[in-house]
Amino acid sequence: TYIVMDPCVKCKFMDCVEVCPVDCFYEGENFLAINPDECIDCGVCEPECPVDAIKPDTEDEGTKWLEINTKYAAIWPNISEKGTPPADREDFERETGKFEKYFS
Ligand code: SF4
Ligand code: F3S
């Protein structure tokens, strides 16, 4: 499966949503999650993300992010169309460790 990782936090460009053929993205205030049970591993979302937040779960820290995506995809609403990204997203593009910092 593919998963959304730390660069998405507070950036949430949502370009990924537009291309997913099975609409398996789920939306939180600061982050999007992929439902790993619905993702068909097509990989088309990976190059669409401007901040490279989407990777296969075989990446470093993949297990941690797989758990995060699974948890939040189960409780957040499905998103199938791109909304308005946060106005201040560029301020957070180069920051790391955002999940720990901003997620409550
Ligand atoms: Fe959707 Fe394909 Fe990305 Fe999985 S890999 S989230 S199915 S676009
Ligand atoms: Fe996040 Fe990138 Fe999608 S910032 S919302 S994973 S396009």
From TrEMBL:
Pfam families: DUF3470, Fer4. Its cofactor is [3Fe-4S] cluster; [4Fe-4S] cluster. Keywords: 3Fe-4S, 4Fe-4S, Electron transport, Iron, Iron-sulfur, Metal-binding, Repeat, Transport. GO terms for molecular function: 3 iron, 4 sulfur cluster binding; 4 iron, 4 sulfur cluster binding; electron transfer activity; metal ion binding. Residues 1-29, 30-59 form the 4Fe-4S ferredoxin-type domain. PANTHER family: FERREDOXIN (PTHR42859:SF2), OXIDOREDUCTASE (PTHR42859). NCBIfam families: FdxA_Protbact. Ferredoxins are iron-sulfur proteins that transfer electrons in a wide variety of metabolic reactions. This is Ferredoxin. It comes from Asticcacaulis benevestitus DSM 16100 = ATCC BAA-896.
